[in-house]
C-alpha cells in the first residue's frame, strides 16, 4: 500500500483545513476572544438570561418520558449557588467515581488524592471498574464522534452509577456520580441540554441503551445534577481546613480555570460571593484561600491552557508555545507564583509537561503545576510521593515542598524504600480492589456489603 502524506495547509487535519488569508487586523479581531475576560460580570452583561435546563427535565419526567436520578438525603448534599444565583445540590457522600482516562494514565496522584481525602473523611464511595471513556478524544480530537455517541455514553455511565449499589444489596440510586474529568463534565452538561430539547436525539439514544439494557422502566435515566469533583472540594473546603497540618500562609498561588469546567454551560458553574467578590468561578480559588494561600491575579487568568484537543494532536507546537508564553511565563513574571493550581486533566498535563520544551528556546519558566485535590491532600499531610505522586510531574516541585516545610528528601527516601516492598509484593491500597468489580464473572459479593 502506498503511503500518502497528509494534504492541506495544516498537515494532519486533511484537505478541508486551509489558510484563511486574513489580514493582520482581521486576524486580531478574530482572536480577540482569547484575551476576553470571562468573569461573572462579562457573562451577565448584555446577554439574555438562559433557561434552567432542569425545569425542562422536570417537565419530561412528569410527562413520563424520563426518570431523574435524584440527589437524596443519603448523599448529604450541600447547596451552592451558580452564575444566576440558582441553587445546585452538591452531593458529599455515597459517591460513584467517574474517573478520568488522562488522570489515571498521566497523573495518577490526581485520583489517588481524591480517594485519600475521602478515606480521611470517612466518605462512602464506590470506585468500580464498570465505566467507559466519555469519548471526548473522538469528538474534540478527531471529529469521529458525534452527538448521539456522546449522549449515549453519558447516559450509559450514569445508569451504571445508578444501578451499581445492587452489587452490594443496596437500593438503586444509592451512589451518585462524581465526575473527575473537566471535559466529561462539560460534555455531559451539553448532552443533557441536547437530550432535553431533542425528541429525535432521545429516541436515537433510547434505542441504543435499550439494546444494552440501560433503561429504567423503558425510559432514559437523567441526572438531577452533573457534579465535578472540584465542586465537591469547594463545598468541603472548610472541613478540609479542619484536617490541615501544613501552613500555606506564605504561598503565592495562581489558578488556571479549565475551559470545559466554566466556559461550557456557564450557567451551571459555582460562583461564591466570598471568593474574588463572586466575580470568578469559585472552585479551586475558594479552596486555596481557605487553606491560607494568597491567590494572585494575573492578566491571562481567563486564557485556555493551550490544550485544545485537535491541535495538541496535529499542531502541538502551538499548544506548547501558548502554554508557556500565555500562562506559565505570565504567572512567573507577573504574579511571582509559587504554584499553579488547576482542576482538569488536560490543563494539568499541558501546563506541567510542556515546560521542558521552553529550555530548547531559552524560555526557562519553572512553575509547579498540580490539581487542587493534590494540593489539598498535601496540606492535610498526604505523602508527596506515595499519595500525591508528584514524581510523575515534569515541572519541579521540590522548592514548593521546602516552602511548605515538607522534607522532600526524606519523603523520597521513604518512597524508594516502599518501592522495594512493592517489588516484593507488599503494597498498600486506598480501596479494596475486590469492591471495584460489581458485575461479571469476577464479582464475588463480600460479607458485610449489605450494611456498607
UniProtKB/TrEMBL annotation:
Keyword rRNA processing: no
Molecular function as annotated in GO: oxidoreductase activity
Keyword Oxidoreductase: yes
Listed Pfam families: CCG
Domain Cysteine-rich intervals: 254-352
Domain of life: Bacteria
Keyword list, A-Z: Oxidoreductase
Protein name: Heterodisulfide reductase subunit B
Originating species: Rhodopila globiformis (Rhodopseudomonas globiformis)
Amino acid at each position: 500500500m502506498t503511503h500518502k502524506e497528509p494534504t492541506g495547509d495544516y498537515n494532519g487535519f486533511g484537505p478541508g483545513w486551509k489558510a484563511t488569508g486574513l489580514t493582520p487586523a482581521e486576524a486580531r479581531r478574530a482572536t480577540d476572544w482569547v484575551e476576553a475576560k470571562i468573569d461573572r460580570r462579562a457573562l451577565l452583561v448584555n446577554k439574555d438570561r438562559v433557561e434552567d435546563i432542569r425545569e425542562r427535565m422536570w417537565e419530561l419526567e412528569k410527562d413520563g418520558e424520563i426518570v431523574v436520578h435524584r440527589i437524596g438525603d443519603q448523599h448529604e448534599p450541600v447547596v451552592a449557588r451558580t452564575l444566576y444565583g440558582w441553587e445546585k445540590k452538591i452531593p458529599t457522600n455515597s459517591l460513584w467515581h467517574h474517573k478520568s482516562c488522562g488522570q489515571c494514565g498521566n497523573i495518577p496522584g490526581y485520583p489517588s488524592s481524591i480517594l485519600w481525602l475521602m478515606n480521611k473523611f470517612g466518605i462512602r464511595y464506590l470506585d468500580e471498574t464498570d465505566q467507559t471513556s466519555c469519548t471526548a478524544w473522538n469528538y474534540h480530537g478527531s471529529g469521529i464522534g458525534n452527538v448521539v455517541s456522546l449522549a449515549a455514553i453519558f447516559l450509559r455511565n450514569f445508569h451504571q452509577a445508578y444501578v451499581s449499589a445492587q452489587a452490594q444489596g443496596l437500593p438503586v440510586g444509592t451512589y451518585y456520580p462524581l465526575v473527575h474529568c473537566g471535559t466529561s463534565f462539560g460534555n455531559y452538561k451539553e448532552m443533557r441540554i441536547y437530550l432535553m430539547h431533542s425528541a429525535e436525539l432521545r429516541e436515537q439514544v433510547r434505542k441504543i441503551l435499550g439494546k444494552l439494557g440501560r433503561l429504567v422502566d423503558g425510559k432514559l435515566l437523567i441526572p438531577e445534577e452533573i457534579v465535578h469533583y472540584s465542586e465537591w472540594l469547594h463545598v468541603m473546603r472548610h472541613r478540609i481546613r479542619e484536617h490541615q497540618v501544613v501552613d500555606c500562609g506564605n504561598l503565592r498561588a495562581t489558578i488556571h480555570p479549565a475551559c470545559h469546567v466554566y466556559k461550557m454551560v456557564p450557567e451551571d458553574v459555582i460562583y461564591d460571593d466570598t471568593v474574588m467578590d463572586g466575580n470568578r468561578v469559585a472552585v479551586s480559588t475558594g479552596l486555596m484561600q481557605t487553606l491560607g494561600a494568597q491567590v494572585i491575579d494575573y492578566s491571562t487568568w481567563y486564557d485556555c491552557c493551550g490544550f485544545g484537543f485537535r491541535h495538541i494532536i496535529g499542531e502541538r507546537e502551538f499548544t506548547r508555545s501558548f502554554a508557556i508564553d500565555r500562562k506559565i511565563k505570565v504567572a512567573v513574571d507577573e504574579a511571582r507564583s509559587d504554584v499553579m493550581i488547576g482542576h482538569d486533566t488536560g490543563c494539568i498535563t499541558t501546563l506541567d509537561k510542556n515546560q521542558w520544551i521552553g529550555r530548547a528556546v531559552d524560555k526557562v519558566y519553572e512553575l509547579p503545576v498540580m490539581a487542587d485535590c493534590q494540593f489539598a491532600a498535601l496540606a492535610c499531610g498526604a505523602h508527596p510521593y506515595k499519595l500525591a505522586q508528584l514524581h510523575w510531574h515534569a515541572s519541579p516541585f521540590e522548592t514548593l515542598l521546602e516552602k511548605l516545610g515538607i522534607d522532600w528528601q526524606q519523603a523520597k527516601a521513604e518512597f524508594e524504600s516502599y518501592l522495594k516492598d512493592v517489588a516484593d509484593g507488599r503494597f498498600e491500597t486506598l480501596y479494596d480492589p475486590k469492591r471495584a468489580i460489581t458485575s461479571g464473572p469476577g464479582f464475588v459479593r463480600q460479607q458485610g456489603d449489605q450494611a456498607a
